[in-house]
Structure formats: C-alpha cells, structure tokens
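**User:** Everyone, produce a chain:

**Assistant:**
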Amino acid sequence: PSLSLLLPIIEVFFVVNAPSTVDKSKDKDASSSVLSMSSDNLRATRFLPFAEQHRHIINDLVRQYSSLLAGSFTVLLSIPRLLDFDNKRAYFRTQMQGLRERDHFGGMRLKIHRNNVFEESYAQLHHRTADEMRGRITVTFHGEAGIDAGGLLREWYLVLSRKIFNPNYALFIPSAADNATFQPNPNSSINPDHLFYFKFIGRIIGKALFDGQMLDAFFTRSFYKHMLGIPVNYTDMEAIDPEYYKNLRWILENDITGVIDLTFTHDYQEFGVSKAVELKPNGAQIPVTEENKAEYVRLITEMRMTTAIKDQINSFLQGFRELVPKNLISIFDERELELLISGLPDIDVEDLRANTEYAGYTTESPQIQWLWNIINSFSQEEKALLIQFVTGTSKVPLDGFKALQGMSGLQKFQIHRVRGKSDRLPSAHTCFNQLDLPEYETAETLEKAL
C-alpha cells in the first residue's frame, strides 16, 4: 500500500525531471529512442541522483506494476544499471511475447536422432527464414515414444547447446582459466562450414531467448560483450589467457624502458605455422615504449579477442540478431546476459562454505562470519552474481563446489584477506576463484561493499 501511495509522486518527478533528447515523432519505437539517450545528459539533471538514491523503491514499483517501463518509467531503459536483473528479464520477455503475438508464424516439426542432434538440427533448420524460425518448434527423437508438450523441446535445447562445444566441430575452444567457458576458435576455418555453423548457433541462442528456454552454454565474458556490442578491454583477457593477461598488466603498471623488446606486431600459430600480423601500419618497425604501451595493450587486446575471430563473431551475430532485436538485448550487461541465456543456478551455500579456503582469515574471523550470513540472505540472483564475480561464470559443477576448476585444475573457492584501508571494494581473480576481501569494521559496511 505504501508503494502505491508513492507511485504518483515519483511519476510526477520522472515527468518533470527526466530529460528527453529524442524526437519520438520520428521514431515509432519509443523504447528504442530512449535507449539511444546519453547517460551523460541525464547526469546533468536531478534525475539520476534521485534514481540512484531510491533505486530499491523504484525497482519494487516496477516489480509491482510491470507496465511502468512501457510508460512513465521508460527513461530507466536508457540507464539499465538502475534496474534489477529480474525486472529487466520480465520486460525483455514481455517484449518478446509481444513480438510473438503481433506476428503469427507457422510451426516446424523436427525429427532428430539423439546421437546426431547437432548435424540433423542444422540440416533441418539452416535453410529456414527468420520468420519461420520465430514459429513454434515441436521435437520428436527417433525411436522414442512421446508427444512434445514442451518437455521434449526443453530437452532438445539442452542437448543441442552442449553439442556446439564438441571439439570435433572445432568451433569453440575452452577458456584457459576454467575449462568451463568457451569462446570462438580462431582456427575454426579447419571446418569448411564453420561460418554457416556460427550463424546457426547464433540463431539457436536467439531462438531460445525468443522462446524463453534455457541453454547449457557458458561463454567467456568477452564473447558476451560481443553479443551486446560492448567493446572488450585487456581485463577480459584474464578469462581467456591468465598468463598473457598478467604480462599485459605488468606492462601497464611498470616502467618498461630498456626492459622489453616488442614491436606493434602479433605473433601466433595457425595450424602449426608461425605467423605475424602488424597491429598498425608499419607496426613491425615501431617499438613498444613507455609512451605508447597503452596503445599497444589496447591493439593487441583487440587483435586477440576481436579481430582474430571477427568472421566468427559476425556470422554468429547475423543469426542471433535475426531473432533478438539489438535494442532489447542491450539493456543487459555481459554478466546478466549469461544468466538470461543459461538461467539462475541452484547454489548450495553450505556446499560452497564447506569447499572454501582462507588466506589471512579463519572460519572464526568476524568478517568471514558476516560474509556467510550476508550470502545466506542473498536472493538467488545475488548468489549467482557473486559466484560469477569470483569464478568468471555462474555455472556450478555437477559434483558441487568440490569440483570447481581453476587455471591449473581443481581449485577451491578462496577468500583472501586484504590488509590496510577498509574503504576498498572487494576484488576477484577469476583464474584462481579468489575473492580479495578487505578487513571491514562492520557487517553493514561489508554488505554494502559486497
């Protein structure tokens, strides 16, 4: 009841203070127009400080009155970080449902051998138009009795999503940090149909989102960024090649004068043959110096995580965006996109606690006692985001947290003490499943920082 009393007041504030720099008469899609609004313009008003201060109330209102995001609260879609994941997900699914109801598409029947699900699904779907892909799919597995009332379709999505990482297809390679997340293989061209397959996989992931189905597919943070059109940076390298990331970080944090001998080139192996590519015109003749090292790190990062797999990314996005409008998916960040595609995991906090190691803390340390109490109070979404923050993925091993993987094999969840000032935020090293936790003086301070 108290929320309903606040709603008219907040709506008036939004109408008066939320700026609109878009001429909506020229754009029929109001939500798309708002998404193009600059957050810098919003910062210049009273709106953003108010929305940040009262974020919890605003999200509770959106939860209670879901139509607000299509009405007086539409401006929040231009600053989606103010919206909780469950509100974004509900808005996204409502919009996708609207697309299904607005356009009536025919159905498709698939008859698949379970042991050949990837090839046969590709053969039966790759020639379909985007409109046909939006239609309902019903699935039958050869030799298995059953009518698809939804269960067989869910199973098909899960089985198919696992098969895309089959090393025999050479399409994806596991991350060196955890062997649980994947990114496109820069040498996937060994498979002559690789780009057709990447478009098909983009379509399948887009179709799963269109249908509200979950997939057993987990990608590197940089690949989720590519799906969203977010530029990658050198910190994303940690999940792909932890040792190389450490080298780049060392270059940025230290004076390299007279220490390293590098040029603006990238050396790599392609099918056993050593090759080199220049990062900029005449790059082989340009040494990396203290003055230009930031440019070198930016260019080598872009080369390894974007340029080297640009054909694979573009083919994937071609299929993905046939089914998922870019303006709708862009309300999520890369961590939330993983949860949207693969769902919220069932996290057993006691299992996590039993398989956690400490450095500088003990199980009796006040900060550790507070931490576990806070985690126990977390929602399912918050627990997933914490696991994702520390390990790089929300995926929980089938055998529980005792089977958690790091860059060198089995690596338990770790909590390390950070001595000194307690005004720092917690940080993480995903390749070691390590949470660096400062010595906070109160449980309230720890909870706010976390």
User: Anything to note?
Assistant: The chain is about 45% helix and 10% strand. The CA atoms of residues 199 and 316 lie 4 Å apart.
